[in-house]
Amino acid sequence: MSDAIAIPEESHGLLKGKDASLPAPDVSPTPHTYRPDVDGLRTLAVVPVLVFHAYPAFLPGGFIGVDVFFVISGFLISGILFKEHQRGSFTYAGFYVRRVRRIFPTLLVVLVVTFWLGYLYLMAPKLKAMAATMLAGSLFSANLQVLSLQHSYFDIDTSAFPGYYALLPTIGATLLIAAGADASVNTYLLSNRVAVYVGKISYCLYLWHWPLLVFAIERYPDVTSRPFYMQPITMLLLSVVLSVATYEDLEGRLRRHHSKWVTPLLVVGMMAIAVVAGCAYTNPASFSATEIEIANASPLGDATSLNGTAVTTVIQAKQAMADDNWNFGTTSCAPDALYITAATASVPFPFNDALLAEYPERCEVINPGHEADGTLVVLGDSHADMSVPRFMQLFDDATASKTPFPTIVFKDRWARAMLPCRPEFAENMHMLATVKPQAVLLAVHWIQYLNPGAPKDQVYTDPPKCCVYDFIACKEQNTDDVRHIFQSLQAELLKLSRLGIKVFVVDQSPEYPQMVPDTWVSGTSVKVPAPISRSAFRKEKAWFLDPLHAAVKAANATLLDYADNYSNGDTVLLTDATGGNHLNTRTTRAHLTILDQVVAAARTSAL
């Protein structure tokens, strides 16, 4: 992206041609005709991008400025290359030396400052993501990084960009440039002194504004409590100040400095950034001041970890957010394990795969090979995976006391509903009927998949539809879909119960955005919200909780509510939420004792 924004020679326009019949190529600095309107066009490109990033609702299409930058760079760079080629003076070395001298100075400074801010304010997961971006940026492979994420960045169905509409800004920019410097718009608007200067610093503006906006939000997540000096407009003004300073004092001096060591030193500096970013990506906790402080701090006690009123400092709030690997201690199922091979039932009707393949179905196991002591199969999405730490605690306790412990198998797929709206559900019901474990635990994030947004009069068709992971009402699901999901769920769970399998179903526990501790952080203070009410949540979600509870009861299954372990009566005391709906490793391992009965059922039934 940086290549598309500013280059030293292009900021002065195209080159004047030399007589091609000269006996030897002229390698002196190439003469040029400066077009101030091209710098002014840069302003027309960068300002919408800045406004879009700061106030996306105010200018939702501001990102089209990036397309204008591409046109400008294509016009100017290609013009320079064509002229040099005609004169016989073009060399790749010369081209990249100019690129390095123009792009690297400001980029290096911004990367260093960004890394320093990340060290101060980011915890390991976000710092790792930032380090990945820095590494890709320093190696000029950000495009490959975006593609590797597999998040459909370039082909979002709901976005018209990129697409034919992108031709409007690009063709418009092309026509303005083609009109020439004497065109009215170019002369009186784009050649304005202010527009020209903003265009000159547009590259610096583009680099500075985004990290400032991001870290302002990171420091003050709650927009209502954000002070004026951390507001987006203030960050934009600060980026202007830093851009002017960088352009005048850094870029200007290096542009006038003709030492042969400038380019090698800039390259070495970028390589150093890449090495540091790679180290931070590999071990992010060692590059996070918050993580280091957490490691040196005394662990929060049981009461503190569940009582929001005890979280009064930034470090305590961030410690409540700290998370570990849920699957620590598990092993992957053998490829020929019955838990995998038996999940191949012929699905009686087609399913639409509405989600990307980035979340494959997983099969993990605790205490493999001890099915004689009982078998427990845990089905679901990430909420099934979230239960692993508690089961590992029980396994460790049993190992220490030399008590027999059942084999626990986790068949889950993140962000997928293990419900009758998904093929995985039918396949794993077939697997359970084949394996016949002593106990089954179904844990899914109900509120995520039951969010009907289709008209009530929409005709129902099999199979029932589930929403995906956007947490918004989906147009493909209506109330009939929800009703059929619970009817099918009840029928399938009842089949398991009649096979003698103890069935447990995890209820939808209360969750609200204010449960996430990082929303409480405001600068150097923490503002803890009032505890939430379980009864109020149940009343609000009764439309799907009531049929869920009825289906579980009719299937002779047992309903488990995790909130029983982190509530005081009707008051939910949880502060250890991650992502708004997950429990972190520490809380699950120490406090989710409601799961103990599931292991006991698997063990007792095997006796």
Automatic annotation (TrEMBL):
Gene Ontology CC terms, in alphabetical order: membrane
Coiled-coil features, chain-numbered ranges: none
Transmembrane domains' residue ranges: 57-82, 103-124, 164-185, 197-217, 229-250, 262-283
Highest rank taxon of the organism: Eukaryota
Keywords (A to Z) from UniProt: Membrane, Transmembrane, Transmembrane helix
Region (Disordered), start-end ranges: 15-34
GO aspect biological process, one term: polysaccharide biosynthetic process
Protein name from the UniProt record: Acyltransferase 3 domain-containing protein
Native source organism of the sequence: Saprolegnia parasitica (strain CBS 223.65)
